[in-house]
Amino acid sequence: MVTEKDLSKLPDQPGVYLMHGRNDEIIYVGKARSLKNRVRQYFQPSHDEGLKKKQMVANIDYFEFIVTDSELEALILECNLIKEYRPKYNTMLRDDKTYPYIEVTLTEDYPRVLFSRRMKKNGSKFFGPFTSAGAVHDTVELVQKLYKIRTCNRKFPESFGKGRPCLNYHIGQCLGVCQGNVSKEEYAKNVEKVIQFLDGDYNDTLKDLQEKMLAASEEMDFEKAAIYRDLIESVEACAGRQKATQLDGEDRDIIAMAKTAEDAVVQVFFIRGGKMIGREHFFINVRVDDNKEDLLEYFIKDYYTGTPFIPREIFVQFEMDEVELLEKWLSDKKGSRVYIRTPKRGDKEKLVELAAKNAQMVLDQDREKIKKEEGRTIGAMKEIAELLGLPGASRMEAYDISNISGFQSVGSMVVFEKGKPKRSDYRKFKIKTVEGPNDYASMHEVLTRRFSHGLEELEANGGDIKDSFTKFPDVIMMDGGKGQVHIAKQVLSELGLHIPVAGMVKDDHHRTRGLYFNDVELPIDTHSEGFKLITRLQDEAHRFAIEYHRSLRSKGQVRSFLDDIDGIGPKRRKALMKKYVSAEKMAAASIDDLADTEAMTREAAENVYNYFHPVNSD
Asked: pTM of the prediction?
């Protein structure tokens, strides 16, 4: 849940925020001029953004954010992230048509400057995306006028001299390409000036426009001066460069870090096809003699050993001693040339600075959260190990038996490693050898199957640990007290295993009150993280068993002894199970009591009674 403390850490800067649901999925992406003000609004009771946003807020488990240098950059990044994650509650900004581009058709002998809605791989050079379609139209018109770029869609040189020149030629806004009045080389010089202008070198043009605007004002031609003023505003609006979208369409990783004496955070921005599509941050434990360059080298080696994708370029914050060796290693892994660069100027340097800024924010604001999370996981495991007198504990396994009114038992095994659920190692068991509601016998079967399988796999693997069954726990936590612990110890003794076993004891209100270990019930502080972890483990084992039982029932895979009695169908079976809490109580009922059950007949009641009280043939 989002707390006031979480909100207080938001910076008063532009950026993008990502709302996460309870299953860690991204459910909404938004941008803000001020992250502090915008995100806080969602959690103010008086603030109303409609039913859909209200539903979204109710499903937010936590949020994260990426700081940008401007609101314009935030808007572009928001679009990229929405396209990447398709969040449930985002309905806007899903179409490339939201953002216009300027296209220079370099594949043509006499290139044009066009307004475009999509950036294609067609050999053209694209500028953008931009936020204002009107400003783009004005800028396209401006460069066409300033550099006399053709606006027609004829093919040259095939169309030279065919047809009359257009109006633009007659008013001096076109060089007359259609009449063959300009050479390809001369026209190319004007196109190069257009590219320089759109690439950010627009100071000379702005200066020229400002001089013309002042001259028109002095001549009292205010209408003309207003035209130049509007064009200046359009140029300035389109001149803003976007770090969130790189124009060359390359795949890049941007890596930067922030460091203290004890901790470091590495921030990685992922740019794919020229667009920033996301980021990840990684925490590194720092030793006294570690410097930033060494940590960066260590991270690159570790990270790209495990990641399946290696981009063509990696921008890093610091120059490293082994950069050539790292490039060769990465190139061999990728199968093509990989470059590691340390940008010194321009937008690429600013992008690295942005990653470093975000790394510093994560380090400053999440340090307390990290320590708290470690306390409730690794710290809680240490508490439990100390309580049981064990040298340490990393892996715990808990077991539970589930049956509905005593009918058809199933078993569950849940695993926690370093204080967190490891769901890939969970296992389910159908009870095969036990008839009726016998939890102790069912648990004996489950544990025997689990550890026998593990020992068989270990022997087959030559002692190598390869899966969840071959990896044995540091401690077994049984859902119950002395009886369940005794069953577990019996199974381990039969198999020649030595694993500590503790029972999670509950009080009369079915709440965990302590641990039963070595024939003694150990009291535990109910406010401690260790106690909370035991409760989570116990609840998870129970939930997993119940969930498995329900899934089998819904698939019709669970049978009870009632299915084998003549005259008992689904309706009567359900009525009997509802009336009698257990098979024992049903066995103690008289024929009259059984017949008094909803939907039952006298004959069916006698069949049930005779099942529990068979007539002795002797």
From this structure: 0.40
